[in-house]
Automatic annotation (TrEMBL):
Top-rank taxon, per record: Bacteria
Protein name: DegT/DnrJ/EryC1/StrS family aminotransferase
PANTHER family per UniProt: 3-OXO-GLUCOSE-6-PHOSPHATE:GLUTAMATE AMINOTRANSFERASE, TRANSAMINASE
Keyword Transferase: yes
Gene Ontology BP term (one): polysaccharide biosynthetic process
UniProt KW Transferase keyword: yes
Length: 368
């Protein structure tokens, strides 16, 4: 039985394993495992790639978001607007700093926060908007920045799924006040473990995050804040430095695969294809199954050897942990409808035409 996985991170190792082995061995031999040249170089190289001033590496995308909120002194009594249709981290960090997540429904075609609904969610307590460029697709940052500026709100971009994505010729993570990236292995640029980074044009924010990620300590053994230990390992930085030059090519391949799905699936009845978007980097290729049992189709695809994924089966406002916000079913109808319909098909840069044809044929069989 041929199995087409939803992603396959081993393929990159086949491609650049020799380079990776060399750099990792050199780090091991150097004895510099925490901090050092690879980390600072990668921070500079990544900030340059994104087109912004500063990069501050940390231990995960979640930490990047947490540190971003902390650097802006967002905490108890504050509200932060975000989407209920995202990975849990985007909202979790808001609670971690003691603030309150305020959810705003999404647009069905983009899966992203519905900007037409943002203004009515703003209150006196709102401090920031935290848009998520979900599945690699950029939020309309022109419109979002206009709303934020009008109401003097910070913008923290969750770029975890969108490394390299562009809005109006600028990379996401260079447009808001702060950009937050994850290098979890299945992201567009992934390391071999956990990793993250914060981008900003603001020197003071960058400096505050550098201090917060190191126990709130601007100088060793002197502590100005309660911080944390959130450093990117030297080995992971070295791996990311090898991989970064390949990122545009890998994103280009993802786009070609997405285009090919769009072509091959366009006449299939009963599904809605993801809306085209020039700046997307296609972390996921996500269709919506209409008027059919999505879970049954996923099970049948699996029988045919194709593994698909459901991102995300339960919207955040309906998670047990958010009972305290008091949102019942029906609070965010678009999010709820979409989460019952979504199905993400196999998507990774090395997915071959033959593998993709198998996915398309299997899906056709399931929809007959
Ligand atoms: C992966 C992800 C995160 C968290 O990144 P980690 O590195 O896993 O902590 C945050 N937000 C979104 C949208 C993500 O997909």
């Amino acid at each position: 039985m041929i199995k087409i996985p939803p992603f396959d991170v081993t393929k990159q190792f086949e491609l650049i394993g020799e380079e990776l082995n060399k750099t990792v061995t050199a780090v091991l031999a150097s004895g510099h495992y925490v901090g050092g040249e690879h980390v600072t170089q990668f921070e500079t190289e990544f900030a340059q790639y994104i087109g912004t001033e500063f990069g501050v590496a940390c231990n995960s995308g979640t930490d990047a978001l947490y540190l971003a909120l902390r650097s802006l002194d967002i905490g108890a009594g504050d509200e932060v607007i975000t989407t209920p249709f995202t990975f849990f981290s985007s909202a979790e960090v808001i609670d971690m700093v003691g603030a309150k997540p305020v959810f705003v429904d999404i647009e069905a075609h983009s899966f992203n926060i519905d900007l037409a609904l943002v203004e009515q969610a703003i209150t006196e307590r709102t401090r920031a908007i935290l848009p998520v460029h979900l599945f690699g697709r950029p939020v309309d940052m022109t419109q979002l920045m206009a709303i934020a500026r009008k109401h003097s709100l910070y913008v923290i971009e969750d770029c975890a799924q969108a490394t390299g994505a562009t809005w109006a010729d600028r990379k996401v993570g260079s447009i808001g006040d702060i950009g937050c990236f994850s290098y979890y292995p299945t992201k567009n640029l992934g390391c071999c473990g956990d990793g993250g980074l914060v981008t900003t044009k603001d020197a003071a924010i960058a400096q505050k995050i550098r201090v917060l990620r190191e126990h709130g300590s601007p100088q060793r053994y002197y502590h100005d804040y309660i911080g944390m230990n959130s450093r990117l390992d030297a080995i992971q930085a070295a791996i990311l430095r090898v991989k970064l030059p390949y990122l545009d090519k890998w994103n280009f391949l993802r786009k070609a695969i997405a285009d090919r799905y769009q072509q091959s699936l366009q006449y299939l009845e009963g599904i809605v294809l993801p809306a085209d978007c020039a700046g997307s980097v296609w972390n996921q290729y996500t269709i919506q199954i209409c008027n059919r049992d999505r879970n049954a189709i996923q099970a049948k695809l699996k029988e045919l050897g194709v593994i698909s994924m459901i991102y995300y089966p339960l919207p955040l406002h309906l998670q047990k942990v958010y009972d305290y916000l008091g949102h019942g079913k029906g609070s965010f109808p678009v999010t709820e409808a979409v989460s019952d319909r979504v199905l993400s098909l196999p998507m990774f840069p090395e997915l071959s035409d033959e593998q993709q044809d198998i996915v398309v044929d299997a899906l056709k069989q399931c929809l007959i």
